[in-house]
Amino acid sequence: MCGIMGYVGENAASKIILEGLSKQEYRGYDSAGIALRCPDGIESAKIVGRVSELVRRVEEMPSECASAASGIGHTRWATHGGVTETNAHPHESVDGMVVLVHNGIIENSRDIRSTLESQGVKFSTETDTEAACQLLAVLYKKCDGDALAALSKLTAYLTGAFALVIMIRDRPDEIWCVRKGSPLVTAFDGDACYCASDPTALLGYTHDLFFLEEGEMAALASSGIKFYGFDGKERGKSSIHLNWDSVMADKGHFEHFMRKEIDEQPDVLRLTIDTHTIVTNVAMDKSLTLPKGLMKRVRRVQFVACGTSFYATLVAKDIMESLGSDLDISAEVASEYRYRNVNGGEDTLAIFVSQSGETADTLAAARIAKSMGTHCIAITNVRGSTIDREVDHTLLSMAGPEIGVAATKTFMGQISLLTLLAMSLLKDRGVLSANDEARLIGGLRSLPVSQNAMLEREGEIRALAEKYSDSKGFFFIGRRECVPLTMEGALKLKEIAYLPSEAYAAGEMKHGPIAMLDERLTVVALVPDTDLREKTLSNVEECRARNAPILLLASDGDESARTYADDVIFVPRTEPELFPFIAVIPLQLFAYHTARTLGCDIDMPRNLAKSVTVE
Ligand code: F6R
């Protein structure tokens, strides 16, 4: 939530910062601002709206500012204080000494504010951030202009989560970065220093990045970066090479990032399989060396995540169960796990799934699990992210940068890696049969071709999305392996088309929700040709009898499915457990085309941000 970009070097900072902000706009997009070191001091520009609007505002700044060689910028997802120009970042201390941007929430901002106000400091915004800004100015003065000492004191006062990027009026050659709880990455390309919330903003300059750790600060100058702990002691730091291609973060010929990312899924799957299998065998051990005997020892596997990543864990749970796991397996949303009295310890393996690796609830859950002695594995898309650095083992999903706010290809990266991990764990335990191993690896290998066949049916799905876009709401129903998909299908429609959509296990409809059905509430039923086909079709019949229009997803060749539905989307056949790998594509495309028909902002849906770094 919120994107930050900073630059200090010799080139025009405004252009670099604005480009960096537009690459991170998915992190928050209700307002934006920039501060530049102009010849007469630090000048700011702020707007309510998108970065494109900020670009226009910067063009109106004095011409000397256009060539300013350092500055900081911010794109906001409001937490404290309404969406107004005043509340937009950067914020400036009342004496004009400190200008800063912030991502996170300063939890004790009210206390700081009232203390400072009682000392006569005048606040001008409603934000939590301003408390940090005004306090730093006071501390800087008290420390006689020693920035490091003032920042050490500031970090000792502040509670909550904060990535701060700071300019100080009388220190023209520096930008300061402070990190606790919210991500911040820095880089030096030989001529200039950069910092950002998200590494994708820096890939056009260098692929060697320095991710700030919890409790770390950095001083950026055109000559390089110095790193410090919150205690003010300088520390060494190694860079991490991120081999993402910067064009991966471009839209190419697609109208939206989301549509491009849907298309990339067969490649994500292929890459994951090629990396982690040998012929018909799982080969996760190349990248995952668990302590000897761990899998024999554990009794319990806990999957923990939020949102779409959570639904990916439900797919994995189902696969483990279908393979005859003898473990006690649970999947739980991180925001609940962290506050429940969960079991843990040496007999427990917890698997945390987070695309960004920065989701506040997932991180908090992982810290709790670790503190109980639970062995923790993370699956994330971002090397160097907080979760990557904090758990015992990380498996990197191979989706590449995902820019659309709605997760698509990262879901595919997660379910493919989770499936292989699940198989590998059961194999270690001696539970996976050779037959199941060969069957599922063979199935996974043939999926990209089937996924491409599914993508080719986009025209049909678009027509159906247009037809059903005036529904007053949707029910997604299915059984067993389809249940996680009903949730993902409903979530995609909610987040990008803003349509009421519910997910229900098909057998549950008659226990209440069926009362809602009428001719304006569409039921999307997932009915692959498995042992549960007839049972699910009976539930479909019950919905049809209440006049609900039925859109059915059925297996290729299941012609009789047509008699149960108004419309059918046929899905290529695969192993039963792998149905979600193909069927998620028509659900993503259905949501995409519904949102497009309704004129919604697909890549940046209202009220959302890609990386949820607050609780
Ligand atoms: C939905 C979506 C969110 C995320 C959730 C977790 O399309 O993107 O539901 O899945 O916020 O985010 P990560 O995976 O970064 O922890």
Q: How does the SSE layout of this entry go?
A:
Elements: E1 3-8, H1 13-23, E2 31-38, E3 41-48, H2 51-59, H3 63-66, E4 70-76, E5 91-92, E6 98-106, H4 109-118, H5 129-142, H6 147-157, E7 160-168, E8 175-180, E9 185-188, E10 193-196, E11 208-211, E12 216-221, E13 224-229, E14 234-235, E15 240-241, H7 257-263, H8 265-276, E16 277-278, E17 281-282, H9 294-297, E18 300-305, H10 307-322, E19 328-333, H11 334-337, E20 348-354, H12 360-371, E21 375-380, H13 386-390, E22 393-396, H14 409-428, H15 434-455, H16 458-468, E23 473-478, H17 483-497, E24 501-505, E25 521-527, H18 533-544, E26 550-555, E27 567-571, H19 579-597
Parallel strand pairs: 18-19, 18-20, 20-21, 21-22, 23-24, 23-25, 25-26, 26-27
Antiparallel strand pairs: 1-4, 1-10, 2-3, 2-4, 5-6, 6-7, 7-8, 8-12, 9-10, 9-11, 11-15, 12-13, 13-14, 16-17
Helix pairs in contact: 1-2, 4-5, 5-6, 8-14, 8-15, 10-14, 10-17, 15-19, 16-19, 17-19
Bound molecules: fructose -6-phosphate.
Fructose -6-phosphate (F6R) binds at residues 306-309, 354-356, 359, 362, 406-407, 491, 495, 611-612.
